[in-house]
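Dear Dr. H.,

I hope your travels went smoothly. While you were away I took the liberty of generating a structure for the chain from your last submission, since the lab meeting agenda had it listed for discussion. I wanted you to have the full record in hand beforehand rather than looking at slides cold. The sequence, exactly as received, is reproduced here:
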Amino acid sequence: MALYNLGSINTDWFYQVDHCPMDGETVAADGCANGLGGKGANQSVAAARAGSVVHHIGSVGGEGVWAVEQLKSMGVDVTHVAIELTEPTGHALIFVTPDGENRIVIFPGTNRMIEDADVKTALARAKPQDTLLIQNETNAQVYAAQRAKARGMRVVYSAAPFELEAVREMLPHIDLLAVNSVEAGQLAEALGVDITALPVSELLVTQGAKGATWHDLKQGQTLSVTPPEVDPVDTTGAGDTFAGFFCAGRDLGLTVAECLELAVGAAALKVTRPGTSEAIPLLSEVRAFLESRAASL
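The corresponding predicted structure, in token form, is as follows:
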């Protein structure tokens, strides 16, 4: 089995600040660093580090070849990452406060220039047991989901950054919807239904430090998990790490309970490290982390 990810690739710029600037305020940063990011790239790296075969579908600018090489070095197949010369690679400005929380501004760049033909080519060899993962930082989401469903693939939609109309368009074409608790409430209210009546087979609701809940909306089954307590350094990419590990676990045939445990463990371990994709842990590190926490109880 394999995981195909139609996802963004960004250059992340991190600024360590005492607090995030208010309207009209200038804040001096105590530190600055850059690295590979974007929800798509982060989720691809997480899934690869969790053990899945991952094919990334995306686009970078001419100056973004380094990002492609870094994805490749992290175990992600980059055959279907296009290089566009008319726009710069997407990038993000990330302000991180001492408690590990962040505020982010994103410029999409080439993430919005993915061609339908490239998606079609990338999915041409996908098998029915494979998974397509999609987020909201690129274009071509609906087309990709339709192509994937036509091939019998499982479609997972990590609906972030949350856009109500984008989610409405995607709902008929997906198997699992992943949102945070606030977004789940907003979507249910907009559709006039309870979250357990959303028109998808599975719903995954994340709650940050409180953990996550998986709903099988067809069978009425629910599973919840609470993450280990940690001292956060940088929460950037925690949700992406969770999503990548969860999807990889399902792709590899693990039970939902096992997927949830690994995903919350990976996200908890990630937030103890600064950065995004390079801070995502390996599966062996996550297992060791969870074993050490269990032994200390």
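Two observations you may find useful: The CA atoms of residues 36 and 278 lie 7 Å apart. The chain is about 35% helix and 25% strand.

With kind regards,
E. W.
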